[in-house]
Specification:
Blueprint lengths: L2 E3 L5 E3 L2 E3 L6 H14 L3 E3 L7 H11 L7 E6 L6 H15 L6 E4 L6 H13 L6 E4 L3 H9 L7 E5 L7 H9 L3 E5 L12 H10 L3 H11 L3 E2 L6 H8 L8 H8 L14 H9 L5
Parallel strand pairs: 3-4, 4-5, 5-6, 6-7, 7-8, 8-9, 9-10
Antiparallel strand pairs: 1-2
Helix pairs in contact: 1-2, 1-9, 2-3, 3-4, 7-8
Keywords: NADP, Oxidoreductase
Protein name: Diketogulonate reductase-like aldo/keto reductase
Family: Belongs to the aldo/keto reductase family.
Length: 282
């Protein structure tokens, strides 16, 4: 498995399994177990997904040594703040049946993220998590967080796919030695699999459109966490390291960039208020 080196020196797998919206506990447990058996070593969940317990069972069922795995979970908005972050972290560890995390992320750039970051810096220094980072922090929020705190986030996870390629965002992260991680690599839109350019490239390499997208992301050195509960697709998504897209094909895919989200506008006050008010049983 190809890895990327984070700004604190640890290695992170460049491809993992995401479990957003995998609500059925048995389905989630089985998917995690199958992914690990197929060779995945990065598993990404979140308190807000309400499936950490199932993820923990899947990890345990796989029988793979804990030290071989890279496990990520995230802190939700209502749990931000210094004390509540410590409590939420402990709750996530218990649900996952783990002694430590590999990466702990602030899920959204809302709430008391500064109190949370202070708590996360302490958790990192105490060895409770091997790295800390953020999710859905765009450059202005990220810059503010870095200026006022000691530790620079190791990872920033946000929407990245052929329709929103985050070229400038990745450049900013690279300048600050922060790893970009893509969520929703398929744009939460099944029509992407019928996109003519991507279908043509897939036919050229005798691969699926999903494999072309994942290969395009990893060739850009972007960590990616596709979700699937189908065993065959889990295996297919993993088998992307035995071919390489040409420079011409990489450039061709650039033409699909719309420069905006297909899913959620984090600069829309109405949508931000809605997201900030979402509560989960965590």
């Amino acid at each position: 498995m190809k890895t990327v080196k984070l700004n604190n020196g640890i290695d992170m797998p460049i491809l993992g399994l995401g479990v957003f919206r995998v609500a059925d506990p048995q389905e989630c447990e089985d998917s995690v177990c199958e992914a690990i058996k197929a060779g995945y070593r990065l598993i990404d969940t979140a308190a807000a997904y309400e499936n950490e317990e199932a993820v923990g069972r899947g990890i345990k069922k796989s029988g793979v040594d804990r030290q071989e795995l890279f496990i990520t979970t995230k802190l939700w908005v209502q749990d931000t703040g210094y004390e509540s972050t410590k409590a939420a972290f402990a709750k996530s560890l218990k649900k996952l049946q783990l002694d430590y995390l590999d990466l702990y992320l602030i899920h959204q750039a809302f709430g008391d993220v500064y109190g949370s970051w202070k708590a996360m810096e302490e958790l990192y220094k105490d060895g409770k998590t091997r790295a800390i980072g953020v999710s859905n922090f765009y450059p202005d929020r990220l810059a503010d967080l870095m200026v006022h705190n000691e530790i620079v986030p190791a990872v920033n996870q946000f929407e990245t796919h052929p329709y929103w390629q985050q070229i400038e965002g990745q450049q900013y992260l690279n300048e600050n030695n922060i790893q970009l991680e893509s969520w929703s690599p398929f744009a939460q839109d099944n029509t992407i699999f019928d996109q003519p350019l991507l279908k043509g490239i897939a036919q050229k390499y005798q691969r699926s459109v999903a494999q072309i997208i994942l290969r395009w992301l990893t060739q850009r050195d972007i960590v990616v966490i596709p979700k699937s509960v189908n065993k065959d697709r889990i295996i297919e998504n993993f088998n992307i390291f035995d071919f390489e897209l040409s420079a011409d094909d990489m450039e061709a895919i650039k033409t699909l960039d719309t420069g905006k989200s297909t899913i959620f506008d984090y600069h829309d006050p109405v949508k931000v208020k809605f997201l900030s008010g979402l509560r989960f049983k965590i």
